[in-house]
């Protein structure tokens, strides 16, 4: 048994010694079966939150109204959730109420997809009432029970379906696939922030092209911010992407480039992206357009900085179907050759210019500083105050 499970088995053992059932559940069990790395493990139990708190001396009420208690044990923390069923859903997202039960099967029945409805004992035996293991082996994504019901309970599950397609490369089971299109309008009830989290994972998955085909063919894209008019652009971005090549910010920059700023100037803001990230995306956008018209030179890399230059070059290379190693190495070489990396390293400043020229401030100060930067970077003058003064004022 892998270390995270082995360590957490002691927690399950304590719960069982107190007379209750407990199992590993959720993504960690799925990832174990897929041979993926395991980080966190979740535990489900027949014990109520109060009963869990009586078993363990150190706990935190992280979501006790939904049956979840954080247990601190052996230097680790574990989320332990009571078996539960869920009442009527509100806002197509949250259950109005939950009821604690003693049945594992009833608890697994409320989960979204069969591959997430597998439990495991501390000995490593699986409890799989809905055929999740078989679906994992066949590479199929299927809802637990009727897909229309699962999607009407929580409409975000439709984007989660596309996310699992992107991350795992699975095919969507026929009934689930059909229900995605029928239920797609329910996504209008979901908050942008929740759509953003899932869409970002979709666009950074190893099988993004397959996932975007699901988004478009099932009309899910119509209920994403400012995407209704751009299904073709979404598919083009997915076609360009390669697994692991771009980080989240670079993926958004690529999507923005494909859509084009003039087509939808408020695109990034409608997605509620952080202001800092929007600024970074605009910088990559500008650097990419400069790169379209010319090769990188010292001043270009200096202007945009190493990270933005690398991001723009990654997108440029992917856009043209080129390998990444050599172009990125070239950008890094240019950056290392720079005599200065920022204006802060320049040996003169605006005050020096005002003193030398003995005149009031104005646009000329910025223009002269930029001229000096270019001269220093090109090697026309050394980054030395005396040399710069003689060059500027011969």
Task: Write up this protein.
The chain is α+β, with helices and mostly antiparallel strands. Helix content is 53%, strand content 11%. The protein starts with a helix and ends with a helix.
Sum this structure up briefly:
The chain has 394 residues and is of the alpha+beta class. Helix content is 53%, strand content 11%.
How big a fraction of the residues is strand? 5-15%
SS summary, helix count: 19
Distance between the termini: 76 Å
SS elements, strand count: 13
Which characteristics define this entry?
alpha+beta; 13 strands; 7-stranded mixed beta sheet; 394 residues; two-stranded antiparallel sheet
What is this structure's SSE topology?
Blueprint: H1 3-17, E1 22-25, H2 27-34, E2 42-45, H3 49-55, E3 59-63, E4 68-73, E5 76-82, E6 84-86, E7 89-90, E8 94-95, E9 98-100, H4 104-109, E10 119-120, E11 126-127, H5 132-138, E12 140-141, H6 147-153, H7 156-168, E13 171-172, H8 174-183, H9 192-203, H10 208-217, H11 231-240, H12 248-259, H13 267-270, H14 275-293, H15 298-319, H16 325-337, H17 350-357, H18 363-378, H19 385-392
Parallel strand pairs: 2-5, 12-13
Antiparallel strand pairs: 1-2, 1-10, 3-4, 4-5, 6-9, 7-8, 10-11
Helix pairs in contact: 6-8, 7-9, 7-10, 10-11, 11-12, 12-14, 14-15, 15-16
């Amino acid at each position: 048994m892998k270390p995270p499970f082995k360590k957490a088995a002691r927690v399950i053992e304590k719960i069982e010694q107190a007379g209750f059932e407990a199992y590993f559940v959720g993504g960690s069990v799925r990832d174990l079966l897929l041979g993926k790395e395991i980080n966190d493990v979740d535990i489900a139990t027949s014990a109520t939150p109060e009963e869990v708190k009586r078993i363990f001396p150190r706990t935190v009420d992280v979501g006790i109204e939904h049956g979840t208690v954080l247990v601190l044990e052996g230097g680790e923390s574990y989320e332990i959730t009571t078996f539960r069923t869920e009442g009527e859903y509100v806002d197509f997202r949250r259950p109005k109420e939950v009821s604690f039960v003693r049945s594992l099967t009833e608890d697994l029945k409320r989960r979204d997809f069969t591959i997430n409805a597998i439990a495991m004992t501390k000995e490593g035996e699986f409890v799989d009432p809905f055929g999740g293991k078989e679906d994992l082996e066949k590479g199929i994504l299927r809802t637990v029970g009727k897909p229309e019901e699962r999607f009407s309970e929580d409409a975000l599950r439709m984007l989660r379906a596309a996310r699992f397609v992107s991350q795992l490369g699975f095919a969507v089971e026929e009934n689930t696939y059909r229900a995605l299109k029928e239920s797609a309008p329910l996504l209008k009830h979901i908050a942008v922030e929740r759509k953003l989290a899932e869409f970002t994972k979709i666009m950074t998955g190893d099988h993004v092209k397959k996932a975007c085909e699901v988004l478009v063919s099932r009309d899910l894209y119509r209920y994403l911010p400012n995407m209704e008019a751009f299904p073709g652009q979404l598919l083009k971005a997915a076609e360009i992407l390669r697994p692991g090549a771009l980080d989240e910010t670079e993926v958004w920059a690529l999507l923005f480039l494909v859509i084009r700023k003039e087509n939808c100037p408020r695109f990034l803001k409608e997605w509620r992206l952080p202001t800092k990230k929007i600024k970074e995306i605009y910088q990559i956008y500008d650097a990419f357009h400069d790169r379209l018209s010319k090769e990188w030179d010292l001043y270009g890399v200096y202007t945009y900085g190493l990270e933005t230059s690398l991001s723009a070059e990654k997108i440029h290379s992917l856009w043209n179907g080129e390998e990444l190693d050599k172009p990125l190495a070239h950008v890094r070489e240019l950056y290392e050759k720079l005599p200065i990396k920022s204006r802060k390293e320049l040996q003169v400043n605006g005050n020096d210019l005002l003193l030398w020229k003995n005149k009031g401030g104005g646009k000329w100060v910025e223009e002269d500083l930029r001229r000096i930067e270019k001269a220093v970077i090109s090697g026309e003058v050394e980054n030395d105050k005396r040399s710069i003064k003689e060059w500027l004022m011969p």
